[in-house]
Amino acid sequence: MALSGLDIYKLLPKTNCRDCGFSTCLAFAMALAQKKASLDKCPHVTDSAREALESASQPPIKLVTIGKGESRIEIGNETVMYRHEQKFYHPTAIGILVEDTLIEAEIAKTISEINGLHFERVGQTIGVNLVCIKNSSKTADKFLAAVCRVASATKLNLALSSSDGASVSAGLAIIKDRRPLVICEDQDAIDDFINTALEYNVPLAVTSSTLDEASELTAKAKKLGLEELVINIKAKGIASRIQDFTFARRAALRKNIRTVGYPVMAFTDSGESPQELAEAVSYVLKYAGLVIVKNTKKEFIFPLLVARQDVYQDPQKPVQVEPKIYEIGKVTKDSPLLVTTNFSITYFTVAGEVESSKVPSRILCCDAEGMSVLTAWAAEKFTAETIADTLDKSGIKDMISHKRVIIPGYVSVLSGKLEEVSGWQVAVGPREASGIPNYLRGLR
Asked: What is the distance between the alpha carbons of residues 277 and 304, in angstroms, rounded to a whole number?
C-alpha cells in the first residue's frame, strides 16, 4: 500500500534543513506521497528509513525510454487516472509493424511511406515514432536481413519482436546503438530475453494473456535486475485488453502494486482500416504507452495522431499562437486586415481559409489567453477595448494604408464600440471561417 504524507514524515529526519529544496520536512513528505519529488533529494535520511520509503519515492508507473537523442520515446511515469485531474505527460508512441516475410522491395516501399508520415497541425509537428520489425518468418536470416534494411532506411526508433531470443540478440548486435525495444512473444523464452536485454541495456516488453501472468513476468525480470519493462497483454478482444489496461493503471496508481507499475502496449488485431483505426484510438485513450499498427496510409495515421495530440494536450492550458500580425500571401499596404484570438485552432482555421481565398491578407491575433472567439468574448478577454489596444500597440498602422479591420461575425455586437474607441472602420466578417474565402473575394 502507498504511504501517506504523515507516514512518510515520521520516517524523515524532521530537521527542516531545506537541503531537499522544500521549506519543511512535512512539505517534502507530502511531495513524496504525491510522487512529485524523489527521496534522493534528502541527504540526511537513514538507511532504514530509505528502505521503508523506497516504494513511496518511486513513480507509480515506471518511466521507460526507447531510443536515444532528441527523437527518443518516453512512456510511462503517469500519475493520474483521468486527464482532467492534472494532465497526461508522455504521449502514446505510435509504431508501424513491418514483417520480415515481406520481400526487399515491399520493405523499402513500406519504410518510404512510414518516413512520410509526419504532419503539421495547429502549429505542432506530429508523426509516427517507431518501426517494429516482427520475426514472422521464424527464421534468423530473414529477420536479420529485415533489421538491416529497416535500420538503414529510417531514423525512427526501432522495436524487435520475436519468440526467438537468439535472433533478437543477433539483431541487437547490429542496432544496439539505437537502443530499441525488445518484445518477447513467447513466455517460455523469457529467460533468454531478460539476459539479452540486460546484456545490451535495452527495454523489454513481456507478452502474456492475462494481467496476472504479466505481473509474474515483470516480477521475475525485476528480480534479475531488469528495470525498464513494458507489458504487452494479448487478451481476447479489444474490450478485454482495454479492461486489463485500466486495471493495471488503477492497481499501479491507487494500490501501488509495483509488478504492474509499467507502461502497457498493444498491437492492433483488426484487419479493416476503419476498425483498426477505432481500435488504435481506443488504446490511446485507455491507456497504452505504445500502439503498433499495420496501416501506413496517411488518411489512417493522421486521425490517429490527432486523437493522441488532443488527449495529451494540457486541458487547463489551451494551445496558443503568439499574439502578433501574421501575413498570408504576398501582402501589400492595401491588403485586408482580419482580427481574431490567439487560440491555436482558431488561428490555423482562419489562416487556412484566408490562404484558400487567394486574397493576400493580414491576420492580427489578440492575446485572449488561448481562448476561442466566443469564449474570450464571454470572459471579457476579447472586447472592443482589448482589440483597440492591440491595434494601437501592434504597429499595424505603419504596415497598411487604410484603417479598416474585419472582426468575426460571432462578435458583431462589438463593431459599434470598437469604431468608437479605436477610430477604425469596422467590418463584420462571416460567422464561420468557411465563409471567409467568398467574403474576401467579394472585397476586390
From this structure: 7
